[in-house]
Design a protein that fits this description.
heterodimer, A: alpha+beta, Beta-lactamase, 5-stranded mixed sheet, 19 strands, elongated, B: 374 residues, mainly alpha, 3-stranded antiparallel sheet
């Protein structure tokens, strides 16, 4: 037996043995636990490494999206009509500010903010997260900007920022063509996926007009800054910068010079002017008056300014050229005459004796000229705008045949395809329409007043411009456009195509019989001829020229004798209210009638007469007679248009070479 | 017997120095270097407050450890109860006049140092038990008197620490105390009984916990319950460790810690920082260092001829293991977050002091392993 090594004998040996045995058990347990920890480390660091690496990057990196730079609009000559301008802004990230109240009070003094603006900012701050950028001012003047920079060391947390904002250098001139931009609203985000994807606080998007229509091309892509941030969201350093692409540039067919003239001509008036290339369909000017400065919307319009625009009785917010509906008055007479000729209802020799009024179906229908025109033929009737002649002619023609011709020439339908959401179709009545819409039978008397552009018929100014253009180009279908089309055909090619269409004769008779519905379901092809016999169109155009350039023509006073500028047109004076017997007897001057009851003054024209190229339509709301109010404006306008012709042609040729 | 004891007392300085455990010292120095570099990293790659004071503490307490190692094991044996009593006194002092920080009254102000007596208690309880059971004969160990007295020795400091409140430290004291009791020869059935009692009373205990402690326990079972609140620490810690990968993000390049996603990165979560920067390989090396350290301590214990030294080494080695295992499991999401520093690595003077005192007793045991204490 071994001698006990330790003092205390057997019990001590047992004690030592116990402790040694138990430590051995513990050692095994420790080994197992350490292995478990290693296994855990392995699973976290090796097996799931990717997952945690992604999470760590997500922690570490934060992206800051900057607002995309919006594409510009250019006019036909390359002038920027909607651009981006540098603005000085003042941003504050509330989270990074030690004493927000102090900073705000200081800023209020430096920027001389009003109490209202001040409380607005404080309110805005409460609505957003503390790490979100608070825009104190959207546009500082240079004075304010330099002042802020001067005191910047005392204004910890304030950041003067150079940013871009939409600007409209031609102010009110392009308002209705382009629309305007403003801060994206909730509904903008819901409606447009593109806006939603690119949205950053303060992003401005198109609210109306082309700005809205071309939103997806204009918007561009966000620049993205990637920052490393710490646990408190503070930026530590910039890791990456991905420059966004500027939005697409959109070139308009509009000539700013003419557009500006339109604005001047309609100054202080309510109305619309549109000018169109009769072959290419390019809109050369399109203006609605009164207009307003869209730059006001850039930084959020003041309540006062907004009220001024909104409550203006002349309705500056409405784009009258495409969404104003008016009786066309006598401007529709060329189409009525054409329809009668095309349908062989009358010949050009057909004569009517105008006594100033006409009794029919127990009612009296008056000619605008009380004394009457005497015996007139079709040419004289157009030239002098004899209502009696047109009563008789439309009676024979019937409203349904007129409806077909009018619709073929673009009345009663939108001029642009989905370009403006606010564009109106207007109305060209027919017996069928009345039955469906009003549930009543057509009354023959209604045909008579439709024949002089009154009654149910309603058109937009641009529709009349298109109508005139399609007459002036010899009766061929065109599709108006307001943006430059890369695939625009050359003028020679268009004319060649039209010539070619002329030679197809077998289509002739059937084309007129086709119902209006059929035309619109199938759609008329570009440069299709809209007539049966071109002689009829030539006759109408000649009569329009007589109306302008011959003595006793309704717009004779607005003629231009120089053959270079000579143009042809048709006046229109659309009644707003039925004229009472008393008024007829009084025969008041325009100025003596209350504004709302005055006639709308119309003028449609094309020129130069020898070789027509442009068509225009002038409307002055409640302007009185077309010959006195609208035609003189058209004269000035036509001169300018023809003066600008050569410049325009140069660009056109360049454009064609470009392709 | 007397010969042996008188022989051992004749150790010269150089004899003692020669019988130092150099593997142990190597491990401690390695861990010390690693901890200093990690602390430098928590300061964002600058030699600032934490790294400075950690360095000073390590050097001071390490020197102290070497110095204390020359003390005869008898010294520790004879002063064991005194050591325990003083520490207990400190605990009582802390509970009455202690310095309050982050909602817990843990520190006492000794003018030159803010001491956390609960950390010292981790060692004191082991020393005390080693002394208590040194003389006890095997049959008597499980006597009623012994059970009552050892329970009192264990529960008194635990209750004081819990009331601070410091759940983490009290659990660690309890675990190391219980291990020592078991090693000393307590019948296994007591542990089973008390374990069952604990489980039964657990719902009652949980209901007594402070709201933040309850939150932590609940969060442990489902960290996504409150990802920005109580679960934040676990989630961020796991992200940091997991994103470290095989070789880590590189020294001073741990984004989770550098960008302050990691909480408590210089104390309880120092391992997370280390693991993020040095990856799986670094972590395993660190774990091996701790493993060798613990193995050496247990080994010294097994060669000691005195029961005091043996029990202390076993107890202390196991305690170090528990601290390491609990800390690592905690930061790896295997255990709920309780305050438990990683020995030597974590920032904290008291913990460092306690660890170094423990190591010096171990070293003294090694030097005097042939010695028998009466």
């Amino acid at each position: 037996m071994e001698l006990p090594v330790f003092d205390g004998g057997d019990s001590n040996v047992r004690k030592f043995n116990t402790v040694n045995r138990r430590v051995f058990i513990l050692k095994i347990a420790k080994g197992i636990i350490f292995t478990g920890i290693v296994a855990r480390l392995f699973s976290l660091q090796i097996t799931e490494n990717k997952k945690y690496l992604t999470l760590s990057d997500k922690n570490r990196l934060r992206e800051w999206r900057l607002p995309p730079v919006r594409g510009e609009f250019e006019d036909y000559f390359g002038n920027v009509v909607a651009g981006n301008t540098k603005v000085y802004q003042l941003h504050v990230v509330p989270e990074q500010v030690e004493d927000f109240k102090y900073l705000m009070v200081r800023l209020k003094n430096i920027l001389s903010l009003s109490d209202k603006q001040f409380s607005k900012i404080v309110k805005k701050k409460k609505q957003q997260k503390p790490w979100e950028t608070l825009i104190i001012s959207e546009s500082l003047t240079w004075d304010q900007f330099s002042k802020v920079n001067f005191y910047l060391h005392e204004l910890s947390g304030a950041k003067p920022v150079l940013s871009v904002a939409r600007s409209y250098p031609y102010k009110a001139n392009y308002t209705h063509v382009l629309g305007y931009v403003a801060q994206a609203s909730e509904s903008d985000l819901l409606e447009n996926e593109e806006i939603k994807n690119k949205h950053v606080p303060g992003l401005r998007v198109g609210k109306t007009g082309l700005e809205k229509t071309f939103e997806n091309s204009l918007i561009g892509t966000n620049s993205v800054k990637r920052y490393e941030v710490n646990a408190f969201g503070k930026r530590i350093n910039q890791v990456d910068f991905k420059e966004g692409e500027k939005g697409q540039k959109i070139k308009l067919t509009i000539d700013t010079e003419i557009q500006k003239l339109c604005n001047e001509l309609l100054a202080e008036k309510s109305g619309s002017i549109s000018v169109m290339d009769i072959f290419t369909g390019e809109i050369i000017a399109m203006h609605s008056s009164p207009s307003f400065d869209p730059n006001l919307f850039m930084y959020g319009i003041s309540y006062k300014d907004w009220d001024l625009i909104r409550k203006n009785p002349l309705k500056p917010l409405i784009n009258k050229t495409i969404s104003g509906l008016y009786s066309p008055g006598s401007t529709i007479k060329p189409i009525v005459a054409l329809s009668a000729l095309e349908n062989d209802v009358i010949s050009t020799k057909f004569k009517v004796n105008c006594t100033g009024k006409m009794e029919m179906y127990g009612q009296t229908y008056h000619c605008w000229k009380k004394k009457g025109h005497g015996i007139v033929d079709l040419r004289d009737a157009i030239k002098q705008s004899c209502d009696t002649y047109f009563y008789e002619m439309s009676r024979r023609l019937g409203v349904d045949r007129l409806n077909i011709t009018a619709k073929r020439f673009g009345l009663g339908n939108t001029v642009f395809k989905n370009l403006y959401t606010e564009e109106k179709k207007g109305l060209v009545p027919s017996t069928k329409w009345k039955k469906n819409a009003l549930g009543k039978g057509w009354v023959l008397g209604e045909t008579l007043i439709t024949g002089i552009g009154q009654g149910y018929i309603q058109t937009t100014p641009l529709q009349l411009c298109l109508m005139t253009a399609q007459l002036a180009n010899g009766g061929f279908k065109i599709f108006p456009r307001i943006t430059v089309d890369k695939n625009q055909e050359s003028l020679e090619k268009i004319k060649y195509k039209m010539e070619a269409r002329l030679k197809i004769t077998n289509e002739n008779s059937s084309s007129l019989i086709r119902s209006a519905e059929e035309i619109f379901t199938k759609g008329e092809k570009e440069y299709n001829k809209l007539f049966r016999n071109q002689e009829n169109i030539k006759f109408v155009l000649e009569a329009m020229s007589a109306s302008t350039n011959e003595v006793r023509g309704t717009s004779y006073r607005s003629r231009i004798d120089d053959p270079k500028y000579r143009f042809a047109g048709k006046t229109g004076t659309a009644q707003v209210k039925k004229i009472t017997k008393l008024q007829r007897e009084l025969d008041l001057d325009t100025a003596q009638i209350p504004y709302e009851e005055r006639d709308h003054a119309w003028y449609v024209a094309f020129g130069p007469y020898k070789d027509p190229r442009y068509a225009l339509c002038v409307l002055v709301e409640h302007g009185g007679s077309g010959s006195a109010t609208a035609a003189p404006l058209a004269k000035k306008l036509m001169k300018k248009i023809i003066d600008r012709h050569e410049e325009r042609e140069k660009i056109r040729k360049n454009n064609l070479v470009d392709i | 017997m007397f010969e042996q004891s008188s022989y051992s007392e004749q150790y010269t300085f150089f004899q003692k120095l020669r019988s130092f455990d150099f593997v142990l010292i190597f491990c401690v120095i390695c861990l010390g270097i690693i901890s200093n570099f990690s602390m430098y990293s928590t300061d964002g790659g600058e030699f600032l407050y934490h790294s400075k004071s950690h360095f000073i503490r390590f050097v001071t307490f390490f020197s102290m450890m070497i110095f204390l190692s020359f003390f005869n094991l008898r010294f520790w044996h004879s002063t064991a109860y005194l050591f325990y009593s003083i520490t207990l006194g400190f605990l009582i002092w802390a509970s009455m006049y202690g310095v309050t920080a982050s909602g817990s009254q843990r520190w006492i102000n000794l003018y030159f140092i803010n001491l956390q007596p609960s950390e010292l208690m981790k060692i004191a309880i082991i020393v005390c038990f080693a002394r208590y059971f040194h003389r006890e004969q095997m049959p008597n160990i499980n006597s009623f008197k012994n059970i009552i007295i050892s329970m009192a020795i264990l529960l008194l400091p635990i209750l004081l620490v819990v009331s601070q409140p410091d759940l983490g430290t009290s659990i660690l004291i309890a675990i190391s105390g219980v291990i020592v009791l078991w090693l000393a020869g307590f019948n296994i059935k007591y542990f089973i009984y008390s374990g069952l009692t604990l489980i039964i009373s657990l719902p009652f205990v949980i209901s007594m916990l402070k709201p933040y402690q309850k939150q932590r326990v609940l969060t442990f079972f489902n960290p996504d319950r409150d990802p920005l609140g109580a679960g934040y620490q676990i989630i961020q810690s796991k992200i940091a460790v997991g994103s470290g990968g095989l070789t880590g993000k590189g020294y001073l390049k741990g984004t989770q810690s550098y960008l302050e996603f990691l909480p408590e990165k210089h104390t309880d979560f120092i391992f997370t920082l280390f693991s993020e920067e040095h990856g799986f390989i670094g972590s395993v090396i660190l774990l091996i260092l701790y493993g060798v350290l613990i193995f050496r301590i247990l080994n010294i214990g097994s060669h000691s001829r005195s029961f005091f030294g043996k029990l202390f080494c076993y107890g202390f080695g196991s305690a170090i293991f528990v601290y390491v295992a609990v800390n690592m499991s905690m930061v790896l999401g295997l255990l709920p977050i309780v305050g438990s520093p990683l020995p030597i690595m974590s920032y904290g003077g008291s913990s460092m002091l306690a660890t170094m005192i423990g190591l010096s007793i171990v070293m003294s045991t090694k030097i005097h392993s042939k010695q028998i204490i009466h």
